[in-house]
Design a protein that fits this description.
heterodimer, A: 116 residues, mainly beta, seven-stranded mixed beta sheet, four-stranded antiparallel beta sheet, 11 strands, 0% helix, B: 110 residues, six-stranded mixed beta sheet, 9 strands, 44% strand
């Protein structure tokens, strides 16, 4: 069955970077895209961007351009999302999801806490 | 890209039907059939319940249905059950090759 397994939660200081991983299994990794969505505490879902695993093309939400990078490693069926120059309002649960082009399978989420 | 507009909350009694609207523009909801809906229970990952405006993934109850008219999509839940109490989010593909979510609607089953 399709599964997306994300890395564990982490605490970062303001100005640092975080890299969250998302390991896929149960399907052909290069046949679908991966998107990243975040959810601040008590808030709604916010789309961050996506990557076409087949050709590496990315498209980011304007809000995150210049600060986010999404990559994949087909040899391990793993997608990565790196967010730089973290601020306190980046504290959120970060989800990866398979793009089909709907978001049909989701990871369990990774809590990133930004605190001095 | 502005978020799609959803009501903050809706409520209904068990057995009743409710409808959640999702208002967008001619650059997103109105332009594409890639409109989807997600159900999220507290502290859980979102779950796809409607894709391509009106299709249900395998395993999703037929009490959930979707539709679209112009720039507005709708999710209807019939025969409300206690387990339907959750947050619901709409989502649409856009003309800039991005996606956008609605602000979310909290459904309370009275």
């Amino acid at each position: 069955q399709v599964q997306l397994l994300q890395s564990g939660g982490t605490v970062k200081k303001p100005g640092a970077s975080v890299k969250v991983s998302c390991q896929a299994s149960g399907y052909s990794f290069i046949s679908f895209g991966i998107t990243w969505v975040r959810q601040a505490p008590g808030q709604g879902l916010e789309w961050m961007g996506w990557i076409s695993v087949n050709n590496g093309i990315t498209n980011y939400a304007q809000k995150f351009q210049g600060r986010v990078a999404m990559t994949t490693d087909a040899s391990t069926s793993t997608a990565y999302m790196e967010l730089r120059n973290l601020k306190s309002d980046d504290t959120a649960v970060y989800y990866c999801a398979r793009v089909s082009p709907n978001f049909d399978f989701w990871g369990q989420g990774t809590l990133v806490t930004v605190s001095s | 890209q502005s978020a799609l507009t959803q009501p903050a909350s809706v409520s209904g009694s068990p057995g009743q039907s409710i409808t959640i609207s999702c208002s967008g523009t001619s650059s997103d909801v109105g332009a594409f059939t890639y409109v989807s809906w997600y159900q999220q229970h507290p502290d859980k990952a979102p779950r796809l319940i409607i894709f391509d405006v009106s299709n249900r993934p395998s395993g999703v109850s037929n009490r959930f249905s979707g539709s679209k008219s112009g720039n507005t999509a709708s999710l209807t839940i019939s025969g409300l059950q206690a387990e339907d109490e959750a947050n619901y989010y709409c989502n649409s593909y856009t003309s800039t090759n991005t996606w956008v979510f609605g602000g979310g609607t909290k459904l309370t089953v009275l």
